[in-house]
Amino acid sequence: MTEIYVDADACPVKDEAVKVAERHGLTVHIVSNSGMRPTGHPLVKQVVVPAGPDVADDWIAERAGPQDIVITGDIPLAARALEKGAAALGHDGRPFTQDSIGMALAMRDLMRELRETGQSKGGGPAFSKEDRSRFLRSLEDTVQAIRRRPPP
């Protein structure tokens, strides 16, 4: 059965993930290293992991499998999800794929280096309504695609 794992710290689309999951009766694991407001929703499993680098990522990566979806803005976590056969979506709905993850990791490293050397100061553009809409469409499409393929 497909499950959705949300890397919830700084995730702007938690509610949208729950909305799509509810439509399909899927469990959503909202994983964070800080407290969250309880939802009381029967399909939502709120997981609070200890503080520390990559603890939430590790929790997700250890559990996600080939029929699952990982929602994250963390490119290394997306790479780990893909290695396990899971689908991975960014907050803006853009899918991470085997074909794109290498370039995404390289760009992440380049941008970090540019920030460290002072050659780049800002982040990306602000999260927009279009990003939210793209995310909803992409998550729906991903759920449908997983449901159409045979189980591993």
Shape: globular
CATH architecture: 3-Layer(aba) Sandwich
Q: In sequence order, what are the helices and strands, one letter per element?
A: EHEEHEHEEHH
Query: What's the CATH topology label?
Result: Rossmann fold
Q: What's the average pLDDT?
A: 88
Say how many strands there are.
6
Family: Belongs to the UPF0178 family.
Region (Disordered): 114-152
Organism: Parvibaculum lavamentivorans (strain DS-1 / DSM 13023 / NCIMB 13966)
Pfam family, one: DUF188
Topology:
Blueprint: E1 3-7, H1 14-24, E2 27-32, E3 44-48, H2 55-63, E4 69-71, H3 75-83, E5 87-89, E6 95-96, H4 101-116, H5 129-148
Parallel strand pairs: 1-2, 1-4, 2-3, 4-5
Antiparallel strand pairs: 5-6
Helix pairs in contact: 1-5, 3-4
Q: How would you summarize what this structure contains?
A:
The protein is of the alpha/beta class. It has helices at residues 14-24, 55-63, 75-83, 101-116, 129-148, and strands spanning 3-7, 27-32, 44-48, 69-71, 87-89, 95-96.
